[in-house]
Structure formats: structure tokens, C-alpha cells
Design a protein that fits this description.
The chain folds into 3 domains: 95 residues, Rossmann fold; 88 residues; 166 residues, ATP-grasp fold, B domain (D-amino Acid Aminotransferase, Chain A, domain 1). The protein is of the alpha/beta class. It contains 15 helices and 15 strands. The strands form 3 sheets. The protein has a 6-stranded antiparallel sheet with strand order 14-13-10-11-12-15.
Length: 413
């Protein structure tokens, strides 16, 4: 990576909208490259404490409604011409709905609004993957209990009910990525709850294997439909296992992830930042798509450490500057979220899947950290303090559903 890229004093500012750890990583990258960075986010997010951004305080709850009012109203006139970068599905949803107004006021990402909307929807993503010849888990639409009853004889449990729109799902089940059912009774209960809350789900098969079977392809797709920058990485652990966010992983060249990811991006006509996640099916060794994001992700810091600074690439392209020369580093770079990975280790150790010696041999080495930087410690200090307070003051939550990607047999809807 050309780490010496610096933008001049006349470079337009950037606005980082939404996100969590990815927002902090993007702000740090651009700030270090000489860009003035502003952050719009929920007041509770740690990015507001980073020295690499200027926090925009909004009235009321400071939620998405206030983001929209600020960006589309007179209050943001001083930031006209800024580069607007989205770091969450909620931010993308806002960008899609108000694209015309926002494009008049800011420099926004190139990806077509209709496509970005499609990639937020898991059902549409799987349909696009099928059309592109990219393997998917077995899936089918599921809109009612009657439809579930009609296919119950074809199901092999466990199965999962995966939300079509994750950012709406997490408003109800904040700690889950999907709903696991180990029998038809559980499937009925979960579907009934999802339907009552107006959440559409897709029924999917379980792909056998642990989190180490996961891998991802990242790219910045240029105007010609070819990658300006690209990188692949492997997942090692998540917390919660097979369900939660990645807490230990490494950059590594995965040729078939690159081949399938690039095939998908070319087929759908993606422009700008893209991330596609796969899991390897141990039954046949093939990768199957799990999800796709047209935005920066939580692992952005390790992508940068691996040689590809997507934030600087995106800003360069959007402002008309020549994109920096980037390439994935030949040696693997590991990233580690210590607190979550320790909990993942305990869960896996209880199942006899890892020993303390194996875990220590992995983690007692230099790693990229998702949040902590010596030069910018406050986001980590605030996050760690809050977590400690919660651990002390809150009762232990009930056991949470844990599992991988599951579901039905039979044809697709």
C-alpha cells in the first residue's frame, strides 16, 4: 500500500455516516491522509471520542431521523461538497431513499441505488448469486406458517430463519444474526414471532463446519467494472460461535473466494466498495455465499493492515485523484478482538474444540486490533469501561441460540 498518500489542504472534507468499528477505521485512515473527517452516528458510538474526527452533535435522539434532517437540510450547508461514506446498513438505507437530494449536496458513492437496495436484501442477493453462477446455500422463501407446514417433510434440522433485512432484524434481536430451529416446533415459534413483528425471513440450510470455514473477498470496483484494489481473508473464530461477529481472523489469499466474489460483482455491476462472505461446505469443498455488503465492514482495520486501505482508495476515486497503488501483502496479518475472542475461546473449550495452549499460541503474537491505537486510545477506553459496567451491573442474560447457517431441502421458491 502507498502509505504516504496525502491530500492537500484544499481536499474536500469527508463525512463518515453510521457504523461501529468500521467507522473508526475509516476516520483514522482519512485523517492520517490529511482529510478533515466529520462523524454522524448514534451518540453512544465510540467514534465520537476519536481524535481523528469532528463529532456532529444532533438534536433529539441523534438517530437516523436526525441524520436525514441534518444532511438534507440547511444545517449541513457548510459541508456541501463533502465526500459522504456509509458504514452501516441504516446509512445505506438513508442514502438510497434520499439519493437525489444527497447527490446535489455531497459527493456520494458510485454504486447504483437499486443495486445497493438489492444487496441489503438477503433474498435478492441469493437470487442474484444464482443468476451469476455463484453457489448459495439451499434456501426458500417463507411467508407464513402454512408455507412452513407445506415443506416440513423436506426439512433437515437444524435450520435457520435468516432476515431479509438485517438492520431491521437487529432492532428486535440485537444479539442474533438469524434464528436457529432444531425441530419443527422451534421453527413454528420463530416464524410466528418474526411474522408478528413484521420481519421477513428466508429459510436456509445449515452449512456444516465451524467458523474457520469462512472467508471473504473485498474489492473496490472501478468505473470500468474491474477491481482497483482487492483482498481476501479467512475467519478463524466468531463470538458467538457460528453466529456472532468475527473476533479472530487473518488475511490470506483464497483464490476461489476471489474468483466467485469477482464473478458476482461483475455480474451485478457493482461500483465502489464491495465485500462478499462465503463459507466452505465440507460435504463437497465448495464455497457458498453467505452475504454481500456494498460498504466498509467491521474488519476494515485488518483489510488496511493487509495492504489495502479501502477508505483512501474510495476517497481518491470519488474526488478524482489517482487511486493509490495497492496490493495484498504476501504475509498474513491477523486481527484480534481480545474480549470477544476470549469468550469465543471459552465457548469452544467447553465443547472440546480448542485447548488453552492452542489458543495462546495464536493470540500471543502481534495483531491488528479493531479499535485500539496508542495514538487514539479514547474509543477503546470508553468501550471497555462501558462493557465492564454492564458486566458488573446487569444480570446474566439467558442462553442464546448458537449455530451456523442451516435449513431446508427441496427446490427454491
Amino acid at each position: 500500500m502507498n502509505v504516504n498518500r496525502r491530500f492537500g489542504p484544499d481536499a474536500p472534507p469527508a463525512i463518515v455516516l453510521g457504523g461501529e468499528l468500521n467507522a473508526i477505521s475509516v476516520a483514522r485512515s482519512l485523517s492520517k491522509a490529511g482529510v478533515v473527517v466529520h462523524a454522524i452516528n448514534l451518540p453512544s458510538e465510540r467514534i465520537r471520542y476519536s481524535r481523528h474526527c469532528r463529532w456532529i452533535s444532533l438534536p433529539g435522539s441523534g438517530g437516523p431521523e436526525e441524520w436525514e434532517a441534518f444532511l438534507c437540510g440547511r444545517s449541513s450547508d457548510s459541508l456541501r461538497g463533502a465526500v459522504l461514506l456509509t458504514c452501516s446498513d441504516t446509512a445505506i438505507d438513508l442514502l438510497i431513499r434520499r439519493q437525489e437530494t444527497l447527490r446535489e449536496r455531497f459527493v456520494i458513492e458510485e454504486a447504483d441505488a437499486t443495486l445497493r437496495q438489492s444487496l441489503l436484501d438477503k433474498l435478492t442477493t441469493y437470487r442474484l448469486a444464482d443468476a451469476a453462477g455463484v453457489p448459495t446455500p439451499q434456501w426458500r422463501t417463507l411467508g407464513s406458517l402454512a408455507e412452513l407446514e407445506s415443506v416440513k417433510s423436506e426439512l433437515r434440522f437444524p435450520v435457520i430463519l435468516k432476515p431479509r433485512l438485517s438492520h431491521r432484524f437487529t432492532r428486535v434481536w440485537s444479539k442474533l444474526k438469524y434464528l436457529r430451529a432444531d425441530d419443527i416446533g422451534e421453527a413454528r415459534r420463530w416464524l410466528s414471532q418474526a411474522t408478528d413483528k413484521g420481519i421477513e425471513v428466508v429459510l436456509m440450510e445449515f452449512i456444516p463446519g465451524g467458523d474457520e470455514q469462512g472467508c471473504s473477498y473485498y474489492a473496490y470496483m472501478g468505473a470500468d467494472g474491474e477491481p482497483v484494489a482487492e483482498l481476501t481473508k479467512r475467519c478463524i473464530r466468531r463470538f458467538r460461535p457460528n453466529m456472532g461477529g468475527e473476533c479472530f481472523g487473518r488475511t490470506d489469499w483464497v483464490p476461489d473466494a476471489r474468483e466467485l466474489g469477482l464473478r458476482f460483482f461483475r455480474h451485478v455491476g457493482l461500483r465502489g466498495v464491495g465485500h462478499i462472505e462465503f463459507k466452505r461446505d465440507q460435504r463437497n469443498g465448495n464455497l457458498k455465499i453467505i452475504e454481500c455488503n456494498a460498504r466498509f465492514t467491521g474488519a476494515n482495520c485488518v483489510v488496511k493492515a493487509g495492504g489495502v486501505d479501502l477508505a483512501v482508495v474510495a476517497y481518491s476515486v470519488l474526488t478524482g485523484a489517482p487511486p493509490p497503488v495497492v496490493r495484498q501483502l504476501p504475509n498474513s496479518v491477523c486481527w484480534w478482538n481480545p474480549s470477544d475472542d476470549f469468550l469465543a475461546f471459552l465457548a469452544l473449550r467447553r465443547e472440546g474444540k480448542i485447548t488453552i495452549a492452542q489458543w495462546l499460541s495464536q493470540v500471543l503474537k502481534p495483531h491488528a486490533l479493531p479499535c485500539f491505537e496508542w495514538s487514539d486510545p479514547l474509543p477503546s477506553i470508553v468501550g471497555g469501561s462501558r462493557r465492564l459496567v454492564r458486566a458488573i451491573t446487569q444480570p446474566k442474560p439467558p442462553a442464546v441460540v448458537t449455530a451456523p447457517v442451516l435449513a431446508p431441502r427441496g427446490g427454491r421458491a
